[in-house]
Write a structure and sequence with these properties.
alpha/beta, nine-stranded mixed β-sheet, seven-stranded mixed β-sheet, 30 helices, globular
Length: 883
Amino acid sequence: MTTTEDGAASATGSVRPDLRLVPAAIVSWVVGWWATAQDSGRAGGVAACCALVAAVVGLRACRARWSLTSGSSRAVRAVRVVLAAQVVLVACCALVVLCSAAVGTALRTAGPFPAWIAQRAVVQVSGTVATDPHAVPAGPWDSPGEGAAASRWVVRVAADEVGARGAVHRVRASVVVLGGDGWQRLHVGQPVRLDARAAPTDPGDDVLALLTALGPPRVTGEGRWWWRAAQTVRTALRASVQGLPEAPAGLLPSLVLGDTSALPPQVEADLQASGLTHLTAVSGANVAILLGAVAALAAWCRLRMRLRVLACALTLIAFVILARPEPSVLRAAVMGAVGLAGLVLARRGRGVPMLAAAVIVLLGLDPYLARSAGFALSVVATGSLLLLAPPWARRLERWLPRPAALALAAPAAAQAACGPVIVLLQPAVSTVAVPANLLADPAVMPATVIGVLAAVVAPFWPGGAHALAAVGCLATWWITQVAARFAELPGANLPWFPSARPVVAAVVLVGCTAVVVAMTLVRPAAGRASRAGRADRVDEGDEVDRAGRAGRSGPGRRRSPVGTAAAAAILIVLVVLGWWSRAWWQSALGFRGPAPPPDWAVAQCDVGQGDALVVRSGERRALVIDTGPEPAAMARCLDDLGVSEVDLVMLSHFHADHVTGLPGVLRGRRVAQVLTGPVARPRQQAEAVAGEVARAGLRLTSLTGDLAGSLGADGWQVQWYLAVPPLPPGDLGEDAQVNEASLVTFAAVHTPDGARLRLAALGDLETGGQQWLDAALHSELGRAATEAGALDVSRQVDVVKVAHHGSAKQDPQLYSDLAPRVALIGVGIDNDYGHPARSALSMLARLGVTVCRTDTDRRVVVTAERPDRPDGQSALGVSRGRT
């Protein structure tokens, strides 16, 4: 039996992982994720609390450590000291991350730039290109004649100067630019100037603004020499694979430097389907292979240790510049730097502490990495190789040789750890990832080493680089063949239910908490007590054990502070996760919201900041107007209303808060048809809608002119009329153009008992569109809608869905002419737009309209009762309640 330096005995000679830095890394990650979505004042306040906790706990620990009058046993005091040291370490790491986030937020939000972004102003930006351009491929909405000019490119720019409205200010922020032709020729490090229209990003995003370029970029220089040299090497490597087979030649630069510009789409799809897509992203494996090769070469040259470390450090810096400082590359580089530092200090390298230290350092430098999915996958994969793969390999050695056991344990551990994270990002589970990685891994090392050699040689000796690339393509050819064959297997990817994602997250977080509590708090305390005095601990331990056995149930029994802390931590995590995932388990256990009235006619669903309107057309049938931003919320609303068949889905426009919930309508229900407007922007949402409709086996119909129709069953009838606004002028900006092009729906619901309800849904029309609609109601549109039965001759309606979530841009004359009695406003509890505006609410109040809002009333159901008034109007019933 051997004893490790941590005081843990092992019969097999294996060293238990040192997890003392893991709690600090996890807490740093959590506070980084939280702080990046807060203002600098709030993050600074929490940082001050962390500093206070660290100071108080540290002082008390020092006093307890050196106190000679304490009546506690040495083991108990050692446990308390270790717990206090852990708390101080965690608090200090959280303090660093919080301070970094607070300072970064203060720098990002200083000056007038945030106000210009909120106002969607046209700005002039000067900065440096931070990432290579990535193409947004042309989709099904592009006209055939647009060709390559329709391609759009996404580029991240580190802005240092912004001008607007005659003022110029220095800034320090990252922005994302969406541009057309000319943007594909940029490379990292180039200084550029551009004119663009600004748009805000979501809270917590690592970019301050989304900029839509109004023209090609103006390059104002060539950038630093190292970026120019890196671009020369990357270009030369791409040139060296010219003339080789397309699939392996496109994969080689991607495998070596993360350059996916030449990767064929089919190869990319095969890699994703077979669980090999991680090979296209530079990570710790590339760094380990490269540094191992450099270290072996330096040892063969018999260089001194310091020169070997220097060679590895220079190689690491050069590789980061070549591969671009992406999150996975930075994590691998910092971990490599920590390993080099341990080598210089003659310390024995430990994988888990190095990984935890790399996470803490990177989050301190850039807290926004806490929200990066690539960074999370990289850290989880590395952690699984360090924690899961060794014990799994030892168990497999009972039946397999050691090399085979290690080869099988590594991909299995990585897939087991990354699987839950991948499910949260993409609802699919790969069933072939482990065998595919097992077969592809032997080709990764030669492809990486030979590819790096080809990249180094390419700028000086193209012929030699081409020969090396040809040899490297033999290895990448094998990888592409493995990916293609496994992707063709039936059941290679199984779909995962999107509504089950909260449960996956809960299981992962509870498991991590239990592991950290069990392996981090208990073991180091025992090990530290052992080092403090092993002989005394044995004697006292025997005495305590005898006393415990004698009076285990007695009143004087002392509970372990570690066990109490562990139980409290697990209980808190379970309560928080149960509350967070309550919507899922309520749905899974069959709990639904309040049942709607049996004769309901129109319902406004509570889908957060978005619109989702359901018009009844039968006992279990409906017409759906917009679907909100959340599929789960949309599906839950239709389930609560008892809708199993959807006769028609009308999408007023393609903004995410109106169309992203479409899967909640299409899945599990029979849908007859989907209609959309003629303006297919934003492109990303338009393509997503087209894909969802195609996967449901339906055809998406884009309207170019007004359309009318009728549907219904079981005594219900809905007469509807869709009005297509004229295309708005191009100087409004893309968001305003899309809003003004919203489809307008008029519908008349006839119930089996003879009641009638008239509805107008105005989409996100702004002032100009509403004025057009009001004028059109007095002309052909009003007559056509009346003839279709969807509108009364008087143009009056019973219910109106207020335009643009009740924004301040409302036309009082339109609402006066429509004369509604109930106004529905779809708006979330938390929104940054100020919806509904006070001016809109005041206008509706002056008109005597009953206002129903989903942020306060949640789901709103309107019932059309039988006419019982002398004037022939229907007595409307309004039911409000949580879905």
